[in-house]
């Protein structure tokens, strides 16, 4: 029976691996992939059912050998549970149904944990919502079989499993929050084995997409700007001083926007939305400029405040469309009709991922492999739109009107004094041939 189950699981893993490759690299996602997955699942389900029937029948007919039907049934169930058959079958059927109705991406992640004096075999099933914009519907099931473990070893096994689950769930730039609840089934009446189930219900991801932070290097900003579709007539430069005309004169071209890099934790402060609500509530009707004509995007990509500042700068200059290539990421954002549409474009854009991540990783600051790191700085854009200066910060609830009839450089100077701390400044520069 064990050999049969092993072969069935092996066949299933092969089929699922093939299906996953088809799902990722083939245009036949809903044709060839489904056939392979269905065949693989039906194979394992039929194999398990036959195995269960044979096992139950064996114990039932042992009644003739002096084993009561009740004891035979109990021993049969115990044997099935110890081999994780019933749970795997239930999980397999659930997986197949969810996959067929198109509600989940699927991951079958088997792994083994070798801990001194014990051997723990773990099977991990991860069901993730197919929605690209939300990871709130996630169910994690981990089945852990601990054989002849003392209490100390069992605790160590659980800690190791939890660590490995965390590694699996934070891989690929995804930062997810979850809680693991352990349910122990002790079968000491029939065996020295114990059986543990770890079930984790994922809460909504704090940030559905995570990027490595972008350093305040004008060369990296310019490279990213052009990779996203801007022409070479736009570039970023360091601003060494706002008060020294000679230093400002070193900038070659016309400054069309500023990006302020501040040591403020404003971009990561959980009270920012409350402060924003209070600020808006205290404004008079005359002060509530709606920001019509201003392109603003709410930041939903973790650690990407530099990118959002770049986006706000280039998309709000008067000559934006003349510098942006049709069909590019920047063009798609400019043509979006709402803030929600812009958010979805950025959250699902593979072109953005391919452009941003390699450039951000060229920076000199080391970051963790899963990019879950809160940088001690934040980027904010300042730009003139139709004669009014706007502060554009993706961490806020909307664009902030800094008034009309003023120079952008004066507003930036005021904000530096207000924020305090250390700061640096980049300028988006337009050159005219």
TrEMBL record:
GO biological process terms held by the UniProt record: protein deubiquitination; ubiquitin-dependent protein catabolic process
- Would the keyword Membrane be found if you checked this record's keyword annotation? yes
An example Gene Ontology molecular-function term: cysteine-type deubiquitinase activity
SUPFAM superfamilies under this entry? Cysteine proteinases
Question: What EC number(s) has UniProt assigned to this enzyme?
Answer: 3.4.19.12
Q: Does the keyword Methyltransferase apply?
A: no
The protein depicted here goes by the name Ubiquitin carboxyl-terminal hydrolase
Classification from the root reads: Eukaryota, Fungi, Dikarya, Basidiomycota, Agaricomycotina
């Amino acid at each position: 029976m064990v050999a049969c189950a092993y072969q069935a699981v092996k066949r299933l893993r092969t089929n699922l691996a093939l299906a996953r490759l088809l799902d990722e690299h083939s245009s036949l996602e809903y044709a060839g992939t489904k056939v392979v997955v269905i065949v693989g699942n039906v194979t394992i389900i039929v194999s398990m059912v036959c195995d269960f029937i044979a096992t139950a029948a064996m114990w039932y007919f042992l009644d003739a050998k002096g084993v009561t039907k009740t004891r035979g049934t109990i021993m049969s169930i115990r044997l099935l549970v110890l081999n994780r058959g019933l749970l795997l079958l239930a999980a397999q059927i659930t997986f197949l149904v969810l996959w067929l109705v198109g509600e989940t991406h699927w991951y079958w992640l088997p792994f083994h944990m070798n801990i001194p004096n014990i051997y723990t075999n773990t099977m991990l099933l991860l069901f993730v919502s197919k929605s690209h914009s939300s990871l709130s519907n996630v169910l994690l099931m981990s089945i852990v079989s601990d054989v002849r473990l003392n209490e100390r070893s069992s605790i160590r096994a659980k800690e190791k499993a939890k660590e490995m689950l965390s590694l699996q769930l934070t891989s690929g730039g995804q930062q997810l929050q979850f809680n693991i609840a352990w349910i122990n089934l002790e079968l000491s009446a029939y065996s020295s084995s114990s059986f543990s189930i770890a079930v984790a219900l994922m809460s909504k991801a704090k940030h559905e997409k995570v990027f490595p932070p972008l350093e305040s290097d004008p060369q990296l900003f310019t490279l990213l700007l052009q990779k996203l579709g801007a022409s070479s007539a736009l570039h970023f430069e360091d601003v060494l001083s706002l008060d020294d005309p000679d230093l400002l004169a070193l900038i070659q071209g016309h400054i069309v926007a500023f990006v302020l890099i501040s040591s403020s934790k404003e971009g990561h402060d959980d009270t920012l939305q409350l402060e924003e609500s209070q600020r808006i509530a205290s404004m008079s009707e005359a002060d509530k400029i709606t920001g019509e004509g201003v392109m603003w995007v709410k930041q939903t990509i973790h650690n990407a405040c530099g990118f959002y500042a770049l986006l706000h700068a280039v998309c709000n200059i008067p000559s934006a469309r003349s510098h942006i290539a049709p069909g590019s990421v920047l063009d798609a954002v400019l043509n979006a009709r709402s803030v929600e549409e812009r958010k979805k474009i950025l959250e699902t854009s593979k072109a953005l991922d391919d452009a941003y991540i390699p450039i951000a990783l060229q920076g000199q600051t080391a970051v963790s492999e899963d990019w879950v790191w809160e940088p001690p700085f934040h980027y904010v854009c300042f730009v003139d739109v139709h004669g009014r200066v706007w502060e554009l910060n993706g961490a806020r609830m909307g664009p902030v009107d800094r008034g009309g009839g003023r120079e952008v450089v004066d507003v930036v100077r005021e904000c530096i004094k207000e924020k305090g701390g250390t700061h640096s400044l980049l300028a988006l520069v337009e050159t005219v041939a």
